[in-house]
Design brief:
about 0% strand; rod-shaped; 17 helices; two-stranded antiparallel ribbon
Amino acid sequence: MPVPLPATDAQLRQAAERAVKRWIDETGRALRDRWTARPGLDQALAAVPEGPRRSWWAEVLRGFADQRTHRFPEAAAPRRAEATGQVLEILRSREPRLTGEDLVRPTAAGLEALAALAAATEVGQDLTALAVAVDAELAEFVARAVQLEDLRSRKVTALAAVCGPLLARIAQADAFEARIAAADRPALLLAWTGPALAARAAARAAVDIRRVSDTADRALRLVSDAAFAERQQALSAPFDVAADAIGPADAAFSEAWDTLGEAVHIHHVFFRTWEDPALGWAEQFAGVYGYTGLLAMHDLDPYLVERALRRLDGSQGWSLWARFQEYCPTDSPRQRIADALTELNEVQPRFPGGPM
């Protein structure tokens, strides 16, 4: 049986190159998978409630970890040759020397032993220290993420408590609007509610906790590299601004909504005796001129306004209506609309400065 021959320097160099490559690749992959693969992310973020929030943090952590873990292969690439030389020196000095057979048909244990040599070199120790530092930095990021998520949860709860009363009033307004919309001929009443509904829209925006939370998340993404205190501030700021806006929004909404009862009363008094076609034209009029147009009507005698609108249903009605709108664009002031309505009662309606 032939005696195995000692490995040549060329064979040892090839073995050293493979050992360094294997160790660098496996170390880099393990570091990357621990912080960017889904199982590793779920394990790292186990303290964050499972669901959308953990998924959000997993995405943020993955982006942060991509940048950090990439430092290992970037640092390793220019030192491969140096690490190979150091492994080669170890192999050359080893007694007994590895044989060619050991290197041509290596066992799993032999491959592991060669990779361990790469880790034991000066270069390997430097790179191991870098991997440990990256690991520690990412572990700290996760720990801070758990604290930030807890802060966010407390901010959401606090804002929801502040928003509660205003949300209840908005719900009442929604129900009121739904009742009006379900009534017969709701167009005029809905026009009367215009200012209150506009104030409700502003109030709804002020209590949009989802929007505030999304704003906080976007701000947090932008400062993921910043110091913890800065990240806390970025997260808290949108909630603090929103909380400060609740009081003014509530006051504006309450003021507008308090006038609604009076507006509905005016509506019923003003239009209580009206019938078609005047009532139908009043609805169309309100559709064009809205709340301002209704106030202009209310500045005049109901009978005068009803008679003016009945004229729009005559043979010249559409022509009169077109000329009326030409003189009074939709953004016309209240007095101009009232003057134009008054003119409609004339036998030969004229706008100031010319015929209608």
